Amino acid sequence: MSNPLTIAKFGGTSVANYAAMQNCARIVAGNPGTRIVVVSAAAGITNHLVDLAHKAMTQEQIGEVCQAIADIEFRILNELKAKDSVAAKLDDLLEEVKKLAFHEEILHRADLKDQLLSMGERMSSLMFSAVLAEQDVTTMNFDVRKVLRTDSEFGAATPQLDVIAENAQALLKPEIENAIVVTQGFVGADEEGRTTTLGRGGSDFTAALLAEAIGAEVCEIWTDVTGVYTTDPRITAAAHPLPELSFEEAAEMATFGAKVLHPATMEPAVRKDIKVFVGSSKEPEKGGTWIVKDCENEPPFRALTRRKEQVMVTVKTPKMMYAQGFLQQVFAIIAKHKLSVDLVTTSEISVSFTLDNPANSVAQRLNRETIAELETICDVTVEHGFD
Question: Does residue 183 fall inside a structural domain?
């Protein structure tokens, strides 16, 4: 192929409805190098699925949420030119949503939750494949679980890179010679074939992992904003998109609050020197931000980020602060409970550190057991809602 091999990822707002999907389809069809498309669930779907997976509801309430999901998908289906070829498959997926949502153990089993949460991407890829076919290109709806092997940590699975690379070369790369492959973000499968998820926002990560596995040169992340901004444009009108960032800068920004990219996205890009482009699917003509190994220009500072909903933990003990191994004990407990520390500050008798608090994450794991274990060696104060 004369054009650089490209993977394009489209987020939830980019595939929210038929018109939005058409915009994305035109972007894909307009770039002969794009051979794999990764899609998120249509906007609103994942929130409904999270409610079904985590909230106790009456049978009637569950039915109402399932209907809300179906309504979003049917609005897209009804505008398809070849909807008859898709309708039966969509019905099967919606039936699977209902079966899982009404399962008596859905609130208690992480494996069932991941099966349910994966349904948004599975429906979205089915729909987008049909919309893309309307651009007179050959498409294929591919189940990413055949390729994206993970461990069995449901809800936050870790990809197994060697297996993914092997699977991608054997099962995915041959398909892109004859069709544009449309597949799911966020979703994987463990060694036993059970559905897993990479955590909220994991579709970016999926695109980067697949780009690495098939040897793509470019990974495009299409969102609802024109690139990565100098700061949150909702805070100040002075914010503007950056033409370029280095891998390191993008990784730091993603980790410390920039919501345009998933923090893990940069890891595969750095390993294989894959160029990452971030742009708006609504206004592709406005360009976006290129994230590359080395930037041509390096200003004194690139951008400002903001982190919300932080948890601050303060550990204090006047007797042991300077005792050998005290901090090692504290952070060993944190590591044991799989918590990731972001910022640390120290004083003569205390140490404070912050933890990110995304939905369904730290709030569930920073539990009484963790605090009780810390309290065996020091006094502990936990404060929520820091910005």
Answer: yes
